[in-house]
């Protein structure tokens, strides 16, 4: 693979608590992800997947080791610089959708653009495009309470891609959805990855969800236990 | 960006109507109380001023008798030697700085026209009286000097007397009976309304002093001497001059107390005005405390709001909101809220003040300065009391905030 490096973990540790109670959520993780990759992260509960995702999405910083995002030592940036990185390059999709309540789909999708200082007209156009890309035309003015779980997750994906990010970080995006909805969302993510070249890192507990990704990384007790490419598997 | 934030905060205020309303309530009550108090207070002050200026501005009033106390009204020594015409003559001859000097004696007397009768305040005076009291004629003419001197049976009547006897008709040239004498109406006095003490100032008949003394009072006493200062002379300067001249004509040596009292209407006006102003200020301050309570209410609700919306803050931070975006959002929200409360409070306060003014028949005197101050102050309260909760929201860790249920 010749695409440039997007993410590198160099002996990354993340520890919580002090003394006896100290827990190492990540214990010296080494990892490299290139632009345009679609990576699934799997592993048992408590193995450090969400912790790693928070660092990848520049929400959190390592306790030790180096985390580089697009060649920047993101682990050492202050919170406002990381906020800027997130705003410019990262889109988030959460298991619980995390839409603003009593706020229409269009307004939710516009939100990241507001923090970028995009003018109202352009914001509306971009939001409509993003909602169209996730197949939600006609639902712009519905609030989350008026949408099904699958539709809410589509709004969340639209909100994540409206800024044309480089990386989409998705922590169990289908965790709350039934099988049919899960496959719709996964097809949508696959299409975004293929058509826009959007890099995706996604946590999942389900093997058939992970199958959509080109690469699967397994975590175990804060370590990377295995890292397999789909092509290798097939071979 | 700010405009965008204002729109966002208006949206979130609208989304939480009940909570927003409860937040507003403290500010609404505080601002309404302050505005009502200050507006009613300044109305009262104006009323007091107007009442006093009805008595005449820059006016000294001399009465017989010893002064009861500093500036205090009434309490005059009844047995005192009355004022006499030679006192007036001496003042007219020697007093400088006076615009008008006029003697006056008055009595409640039954006035009759045809079959109608009315008890009126009948005053015997001279042609300078109208000038001294700042009183004008609506129609007709004042007494001439010769009428004053001769004590001719002519008179000027007030609006109440005219209405009683003539309705809307023209009273000029009609003859009314005052006590046992009759006099011809030669003019109608401009209406003055009631004094603050409920006395009808238009139920009056003015007649030449000599006519009054001879045919109404039956003596030659003078009750009051009105002295109006001219524009260049303050009454405080005029007063000692009046005292000197009267001591001289009444032969009172400097070591004795005078047997007359000089009241300075300007001083009384100032004293009463400053008393009502002080009271207005005190009431305003008490109301201001409730405004402070309103501010603490805002802080309380904003803290609840930040806690309640922790997840929302987490989402906003995750998708790229800067600390300052969150800070501004909550600050603007608090400011917009309290500003809204301020505006509602002003409207309620003004309505209250308007109703009260009507009930108390005092002027409705809203002050633009006070209103602007209230607007500014409520915005300030929002900012000050919103700052701490806003900062708390802005400093939240996005991961913790997102995990918050
Ligand atoms: N804020 C925290 N304080 C203390 N310990 C934490 C904190 N966050 C995570 N941990 C610990 O770190 C370890 C890894 O947690 P993490 O959330 O990354 O697991 P996970 O792989 O995402 O699990 P799951 O599949 O259940 O979501 C766990 O032992 C967890 O208890
Ligand atoms: Mg997790």
UniProtKB/TrEMBL annotation, chain A:
SUPFAM superfamilies: P-loop containing nucleoside triphosphate hydrolases. InterPro entries: AAA+_ATPase (IPR003593), ABC_transporter-like_ATP-bd (IPR003439), ABC_transporter-like_CS (IPR017871), MacB-like_ATP-bd (IPR017911), P-loop_NTPase (IPR027417). One of its GO terms (cellular component) is membrane protein complex. Pfam families: ABC_tran. The keyword Iron-sulfur does not apply. It comes from the Bacteria. Residues 7-233 form the ABC transporter domain. Keywords: ATP-binding, Cell inner membrane, Cell membrane, Membrane, Nucleotide-binding, Translocase, Transport. GO terms for molecular function: ATP binding; ATP hydrolysis activity; transmembrane transporter activity. Belongs to the ABC transporter superfamily. Macrolide exporter (TC 3.A.1.122) family. This is Macrolide ABC transporter ATP-binding protein.
TrEMBL record, chain B:
It is a multi-pass membrane protein. The keyword Membrane applies. GO terms for molecular function: transmembrane transporter activity. Residues 20-244 form the MacB-like periplasmic core domain. Keywords: Cell membrane, Membrane, Transmembrane, Transmembrane helix. GO terms for cellular component: plasma membrane. Residues 285-398 form the ABC3 transporter permease C-terminal domain. It is found in: Cell membrane. It comes from the Bacteria. The keyword Chaperone does not apply. It holds the Pfam family FtsX. The chain crosses the membrane at residues 21-40, 282-306, 326-350, 370-391. Belongs to the ABC-4 integral membrane protein family. This is ABC transporter permease. It comes from Mesorhizobium atlanticum. The lineage of its organism: Bacteria, Pseudomonadati, Pseudomonadota, Alphaproteobacteria, Hyphomicrobiales.
């Amino acid at each position: 693979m010749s695409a440039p490096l997007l993410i590198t973990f160099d002996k990354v540790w993340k520890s919580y608590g002090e003394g006896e109670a100290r827990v190492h959520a990540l214990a010296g993780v080494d990892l490299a992800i290139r632009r345009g990759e679609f990576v699934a992260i799997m592993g048992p509960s408590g193995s450090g997947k969400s912790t790693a995702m928070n660092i990848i999405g520049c929400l959190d910083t390592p306790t030790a080791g180096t985390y580089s995002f697009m060649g920047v030592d993101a682990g050492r940036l202050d919170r406002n610089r990381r906020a800027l990185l997130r705003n410019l390059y990262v889109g988030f999709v959460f298991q619980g959708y995390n839409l603003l309540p009593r706020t229409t789909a269009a307004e939710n999708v516009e939100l990241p653009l507001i923090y970028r200082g995009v003018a109202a007209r352009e914001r509306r156009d971009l939001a409509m495009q993003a909602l169209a890309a996730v197949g939600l035309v006609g639902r712009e003015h519905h609030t989350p309470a008026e949408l099904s779980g699958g539709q809410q997750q589509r709004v969340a994906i639209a909100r994540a891609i409206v800024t044309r990010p480089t990386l989409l970080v998705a922590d169990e995006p289908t965790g709350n959805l039934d099988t049919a909805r899960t496959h719709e969302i996964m097809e949508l993510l696959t299409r975004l990855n293929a058509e826009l070249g959007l890099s995706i890192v996604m946590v999942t507990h389900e093997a058939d969800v992970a199958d959509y990704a080109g690469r699967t990384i397994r975590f175990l007790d804060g370590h990377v236990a295995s890292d397999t490419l789909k092509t290798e598997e097939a071979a | 960006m700010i405009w965008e934030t204002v729109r966002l905060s208006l949206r979130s205020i609208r989304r939480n109507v009940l909570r927003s309303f409860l937040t507003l309530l403290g500010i609404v009550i505080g601002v309404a109380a302050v505005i009502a108090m200050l507006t009613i207070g300044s109305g009262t002050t104006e009323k007091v001023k107007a009442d006093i200026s009805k008595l005449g501005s820059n006016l000294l009033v001399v009465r017989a008798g010893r002064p009861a106390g500093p500036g205090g009204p009434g309490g005059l020594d009844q047995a005192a030697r009355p004022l006499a015409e030679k006192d007036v003559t001496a003042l007219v001859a020697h007093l400088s700085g006076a615009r008008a000097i006029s003697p006056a004696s008055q009595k409640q007397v039954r006035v009759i026209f045809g079959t109608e009768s009315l008890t009126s305040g009948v005053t015997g005076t001279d042609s300078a009286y109208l000038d001294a009291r700042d009183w004008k004629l609506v129609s007709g003419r004042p007494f001439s000097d010769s009428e004053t001197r001769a004590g001719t049976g002519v008179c000027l009547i007030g609006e109440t007397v005219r209405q009683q006897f003539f309705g809307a008709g023209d009273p000029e040239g009609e003859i009314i009976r005052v006590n046992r004498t009759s006099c011809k109406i030669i003019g109608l006095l401009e209406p003055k309304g009631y004094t603050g003490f409920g006395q009808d100032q238009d139920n009056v008949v003015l007649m030449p002093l000599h006519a009054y003394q001879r045919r109404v009072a039956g003596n030659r006493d003078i009750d009051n001497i009105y002295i109006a200062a001219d524009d260049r002379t303050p009454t405080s300067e005029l007063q000692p001059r009046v005292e000197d001249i009267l001591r001289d004509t009444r032969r009172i040596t400097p070591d004795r107390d005078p047997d007359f009292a000089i009241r300075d209407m300007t001083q009384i006006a100032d004293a009463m005005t400053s008393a009502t102003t002080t009271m207005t200020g005190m009431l305003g301050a008490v109301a201001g405390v409730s405004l402070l309570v309103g501010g603490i209410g805002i802080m309380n609700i904003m803290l609840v709001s930040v806690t309640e919306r922790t997840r929302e803050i987490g989402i906003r931070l995750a998708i790229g909101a800067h600390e300052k975006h969150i800070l501004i959002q909550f600050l603007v929200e608090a400011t917009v809220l309290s500003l809204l409360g301020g505006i509602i409070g002003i409207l309620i306060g003004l309505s209250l003040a308007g109703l009260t003014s009507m009930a108390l028949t005092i002027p409705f005197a809203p002050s633009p300065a006070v209103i602007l101050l209230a607007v500014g102050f409520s915005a300030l309260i929002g900012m000050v009391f919103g700052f701490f909760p806003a900062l708390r929201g802005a400093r939240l860790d996005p991961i913790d905030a997102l995990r918050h249920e």
